[in-house]
Automatic annotation (TrEMBL):
This is Molybdenum cofactor sulfurase C-terminal. SUPFAM superfamilies: PK beta-barrel domain-like (SSF50800). It comes from Penicillium alfredii. Coiled coil: none annotated. The chain crosses the membrane at residues 12-29.
Amino acid sequence: MHVDVSPSEVSSSIIWIALFCFLPLLILVRRQFANPRPRGCRRLGLSPGQSNLRDEFDPKYAEGVPSVHDNGRAWRVKALFTYPLKSCGGIELQASDVVPTGLAFDRQFVFAEHGADGWTCRTLRNAGFNRMALIQPEIWVPDPSAPDYDVALPEVQSQGVMVVSYPRLPPARWIGWCVRLGMALGVLQRRHQFNLPLRADSECRLVSVRIWKDKPLAYDYGAKLPASLHAYLGSDPTNTQLTLFRASSRHSREIFRNAPRKASLGFQPNTAFADAYPIHLLNLTSHRDVAARCAYAIPRLSIRRFRANIIIQGPAAFAEDHWKRIAVTGTEIYAACRAVRCRLPNVDPLTGERHPAEPDRALKAYRRIDDGDRTNACLGLQLVPAREEFRVCVGDVVRVLETGEHRYIKMLAPGERVEGV
């Protein structure tokens, strides 16, 4: 007996056969490659879903308040962020140790590309690197109270690990279809993940890497990068044109320009892979002023785009423009200069998409205020603490100790000095 079968029925049958054949395989793959938590460690930062910026768009932050309210409340630290992997996702903290290079773990890792002049750092500023915004690092540090803690564990021996995750890109053809199906069903994780030791091991050699005009020695972690990360960033894993560097504490970059000097501090300020200064501060009210001017293009411009370490609440918009010294719960901090902005905040940290104009256009329309650089706009402050080590917490009181004039000093070549500074 002949039975007619329509093409749609055949297609449906093929799909169901594929489901029954590949679903068990995908489940097995997930179990085999599930991402375990680093042993003997705890994760730094707020729990997933928590944020001290969840109300950043509340109208109450559109206006500043006196430094001390009638009810005794003062200006305070609103949120804290560290960015272990430069230009990638940040880690929001409730409290952070501050070390000579800035907040602990901040900008200690950086991607770099090899060219005619050697290795050069790559960030969200560079064309083709938008996807870096969706790479999310986590910092896990040894925790003696962890039930599986053991001093012999590799995670403990390396002083902790950085867990790096990034979106899974399905391959082409039918394999990609299976991967998409697995992700849709929750069988396959939507993000790849791998671990890096926080302390460089014997496989990591010291290599010179260019960041602006500096060329510090740093540890090459390139051999530890999986092929899937190369593919995600659009590089060929079979060559050595892209790598990852880890800053070396013995080869940090000394800061001069607008920074206070060793004669007054007792030490010369330095940093790892931050652009110029150890700590970046933003005032939430100032940001709201900028966001209002971008609302036609970006209705909810998050302060996260500007990648500050310390976000404060309370001062009126741009009150910080003339701060020279502040105290955060008793710790004196120098405001070295205003933060000069580039087009990096045009990249949305949630999508990795780059807006063609904003907020760069809005900023340049009214924030080119520093005689040291009239080409670029300013927003926020670059900070240099008067102490090499202390602790900062959300809720810490912020007080202004001294105000004055700022004049931004542009990047200097190695060995250059500014007369009279």
